[in-house]
Amino acid sequence: MAHKYNVRQNVKIRELSHQTLYFHIRIRLKMEFHFSEPQTIFERVLGGHFYINAIGRIEPGDDGKFKEFLEKCEPPPRLTIYIDSLGGNVEAAIEIGRVIRASWFSCSIGRYLIDTDQQPTDLLTKRNLNPGKCISAATLVFIGGRLRYFPNNSIFGVHQFSFKAR
Prior knowledge:
Elements: E1 5-7, E2 12-15, E3 21-24, E4 27-29, E5 32-36, H1 41-45, E6 51-55, H2 62-73, E7 80-84, H3 90-102, E8 106-109, E9 111-114, E10 127-130, E11 133-135, H4 138-142, E12 148-149, E13 155-157
Helix pairs in contact: 2-3
């Protein structure tokens, strides 16, 4: 799974001592969506194990990107979307939440990842739920879920939103 990184060049430099400088570089992941289908024949026979990971910063236009993503992968209803995001654009987040609600998806915080330590003879693929963050505008995506799950060690952060008058 490849990630695209945006590194801001305006680096903050603070002097911690007379010879040591501290560089604070802010790295932002753009929002990416990943769909996972059943990984083995046995999982397919049992009806599958489908889910979506939504990871990264929510940017303007991500709502359209999410709709296109759903059209391409055609996920079944009532799957879970795992969210790991620090927020971003409020309008895009609201629309993604509406699409999630209309599609009858559930939401959870974190990343659901396939365990790379698999044996070819395993009937079921091992998966790990890693704790994540759902902060700021990402909470508007989360509340779109028909069912909402808050796993241990995950972080959910809400604050007051502000809009500038146009």
